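Internal tracking record. Fields below are filled automatically when a chain is submitted to the structure queue. Please do not edit lines marked as system-generated. If the sequence contains nonstandard residues, flag them in the REMARKS field before resubmitting.
Queue: standard
Priority: normal
Entity type: single polypeptide chain
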Amino acid sequence: MPLSGLDIFKLLPKTNCKDCGFPTCLAFAMQLAAGKVELEKCPHVSDQAKESLSEASQPPVLKVEIGVGESMFKVGEETVLFRHDRTFVNPNAFAVLINDNEGDSEIEKKVNAVNNLKYERVGQTLELNAIFIKNTSNNKDTFLKIAEKISSMTAKPLIFSSADKDTLKTVLSLYKDRKPLIHAIDSSNIDDLLNPVKESGCPVAVRARSFDEISSLTEKLRSSQIKSIIIDIGNRSLKEDFFNQITMRRAAIVKKDRLFGYPTIVFPCDMTDDPLKEALAASVFVTKYASIIVLSNAEPYNVFPLLVYRQNIYTDPRKPMAVEQKIYEINNPGPDSPVLLTTNFSLTYFIISGEIDSSKVPSWLIVMDVEGQSVLTAWAAGKFVPELIANYIKKSGIEQKANSKEIIIPGYVAQLQGELEDELGDGWKVVVGPREAGDVTKFLKNYKSG
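SYSTEM-GENERATED OUTPUT FOLLOWS
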């Protein structure tokens, strides 16, 4: 059973030093028991207490790492049921299913699609995370041949799935350095796979159709000090798996049941033969609450909406998405190119920069740090005001890049024009640009300095 706040408090130094950011040790203990802070926040806790509190200090849903190197991904570490309560931590991983009885050309096509599918959006790279290799043929040699082929073609993390325990033992031995996910341990093979899994250090999925069986499997793994566990429960049914995901997340977070406190895997690829319905089912599990989502294909028209949706869900609602404060060069500007100003709210930047790019007019875009707020919000908060804007423009280095001392400001803050000119002084002229981003292209094409 997890420790209560009072149990944790008894093991803390009780100095009320506030170094953890909380007014008292008791307040810190209550937050630790709720899984909302890490034990490391207390710099004075003893080693003995750390050992006793190690379980209580872990998040309700434990972290699991799959793969190695730059492609490695993390799932779990979740502490809340709803994103607005705090934030979701590690984004879902999308894996693409490859059956070992597929033809070589189809396998190569899928692997290349997974490797090459990549999008840049609001400063982040959106991509698929893993390849799920299934022993559909039920032939060990066929599976090992395909596993070797795929592993040589990609650095993406691999998930090996077979109903044959000897096949799983073999891939554990051959690929343990890549830290693949082994799918799956169940009641029929757990005794044979316990030691190979423990020795390899690879994460493992447990599969069952009932909560009782899942808890029995995870308890047995935990008693063997195996904690990198993924849970697979259900009959590949949208309705049933949706219910199971919510039930397990509530058990882990609300009831603090460690036996269900692990990331999960779901299979929209097995729920329907219609790719669009599959994408729809996958979108359900982005929010409720699957950690790994297995898809049947890597077609961009199916995958891109899911990647964007995941990105939107797994941002911290307390922190606006922001881009770097600096001067951006668009369409290879020169000394006589126009100079525009905006804020570092990522959506504002990418919309405005896109419109400038579409205009084909070489331009300088000065992006000012206003803590990720939009133009009007930053102005209302006193962060996008003439004095601060003028100070930044003078320090930005734009005068070494552009000959003209003209700067175009967003139309929604036209009221800043006169005061900003006064703050800038030295012959600067402030031009009021369009209010709507969609009018920027036409504005630039007709713009003449002076």
